[in-house]
Design goal:
- The protein is mainly beta.
- The chain has three domains: 166 residues, Immunoglobulin-like, CATH 2.60.40; 102 residues, Immunoglobulin-like (Sandwich), CATH 2.60.40.1940; 101 residues, Macroglobulin (MG2) domain (Immunoglobulin-like, Sandwich).
- It is built from one helix and 30 strands.
- Strands 1, 5, 6, 7, 8, 11, 12 and 13 form an eight-stranded mixed beta sheet that branches. The protein has a five-stranded antiparallel beta sheet with strand order 2-3-4-10-9, with no helix packed on it.
């Protein structure tokens, strides 16, 4: 399968980004301090944002499925047009996956931003978490399952004015990230269990084609590796979950020494809807997942316009012909006239089958011609043309009163 090869190749060459950020607020440098605990406080430089929102510390705590990120500030309030944001890099590739924006209007609002593909982003008013606005700080209350159950993530915080590109305060300073290791949901601990209890992580993720296309197969893939050795995980249960809008769809599992992937068949009618695909590996009670999303591009389609009939109405005892314009419609391209393919013509008059005199392409049109019996006067003629071309099929039916 070509899609399998594309997924594996993308992972091997390092094209593993879930996300590229919105314009502004980009940080591209290497990670800074790593946390080895489930509760850690990160300290930012004080008084480096004079007259603006100044970040003092960021405390990150994980417990079970809960992830709390508390940003402590030098001042007590955040203005109605001021933003405090936290950005997460879930793939450790220093490209942003999610941002959570707190804005001070009306007692506070929270939005999250996803980045499904390079140079695109989605802003959703309904956040993936909640917040608490306490004196001198904001706490972002998230769920680890809602962000893909990462075992570690990089992050930073920043403050700015709404819709203004200039960032007031980076935390940490400069082109750096903080890193946090999430508490193991099974209790972490150290101790026994042997090789099967080794922790493992997802090494990047990719979706192809990106964006997904209606009527096509889309693959979501990653490589799960052991945290200590970096070797590919070859055991465990690999599972697929996918949705189109709010409807679940089935995925097919593919795995080898380079790839853990799921493939989903997208209906031709799914164009314009949001696709979400998740790959989950479970080993000895530990579960890790990656998720990719994208807006489905409408499928290519054949369209039929017409008919142009001669004579304008069918006449009993005479031949009646109908010409149709057939076009190939593809997203992002001009429609193209179709002048070859297989044509099937059928008709009835008063419920009785009408003989076909001719069917085929003629003068760039799809043409059907029928011979009406003399007994058909006053009956309703119903004609149907079916065109098969470019691997697609389309049908059009019309009706006229027989004179």
């Amino acid at each position: 399968m070509r899609v399998v090869h594309r997924l594996a190749s993308a992972l091997l060459v390092g094209s593993l980004a879930v996300v590229v950020g919105v314009p502004h607020e980009q940080k591209d440098a290497v990670a800074a301090t790593t946390s080895l605990a489930a509760d850690q406080t990160f300290t930012d430089t004080s008084n480096d944002s004079v007259g603006r929102i100044d970040i003092r510390t960021v405390r990150v705590t994980s417990s079970g499925d809960n992830l709390d990120i508390r940003v402590n500030l030098a001042q007590k309030t955040i203005g109605a047009t001021e933003h405090l944001a936290v950005t997460l890099d879930l793939d450790l590739d220093h490209r942003r996956d999610l941002s959570f924006y707190f804005r001070g209007d009306g007692g506070g609002t929270l939005r999250h931003v996803r980045y499904p593909s390079p140079a695109t982003f989605e802003v959703t008013p309904a956040s993936m978490g909640t917040f608490s606005n306490n004196d001198f700080g904001i706490t972002f209350n998230l769920q680890l399952s809602g962000i893909g159950n990462p075992t570690r993530f990089d992050f930073y915080a920043f403050t700015k004015e709404f819709d203004e590109p200039t960032v007031w305060d980076w935390a940490p300073d400069g082109d750096a990230w903080w890193s946090f290791v999430v508490q193991d949901p099974g209790g972490g601990g150290g101790g026994g269990g042997g090789g099967n209890t080794q922790d493992f992580v997802a090494r990047g993720s990719v979706m192809t084609p990106n964006p997904p296309r209606a009527g096509d197969s889309v693959g979501v893939g990653t490589r799960f590796v052991y945290r200590e050795s970096g070797q590919t995980v070859t055991t465990g249960r690999l599972g697929c979950t996918g949705t189109i809008g709010s409807r679940s769809i089935r995925g097919r599992v593919v795995r080898d020494d380079r790839l853990h992937a799921c493939f989903f068949a997208l209906p031709r009618t799914s164009g314009g809807q949001m696709f979400t695909g998740r790959v989950t590996l479970t080993v000895a009670g530990r579960e890790r997942s990656v998720q990719r999303r994208g807006r489905i591009v409408a499928a290519s389609a054949l369209t039929i316009e017409g008919p142009n009939t001669k004579p304008p109405s069918p006449v009993a005892g005479q031949q009646y012909s109908a010409a149709f314009k057939v076009e190939l419609v593809q997203p992002g391209r001009p429609a193209r006239r179709v002048t070859s393919g297989e044509i099937d013509c059928r008709a009835t008059a008063g419920g009785k089958t009408v003989r076909v005199d001719f069917k085929g392409f003629f003068s760039s049109s799809a043409v059907c011609a029928w011979r009406l019996p003399a007994s058909a006067r006053g009956a309703v003629f119903q004609g149907t043309i079916t065109v098969r071309a470019r691997g697609m099929t389309t049908t059009k039916t019309f009706s006229r009163r027989v004179r």
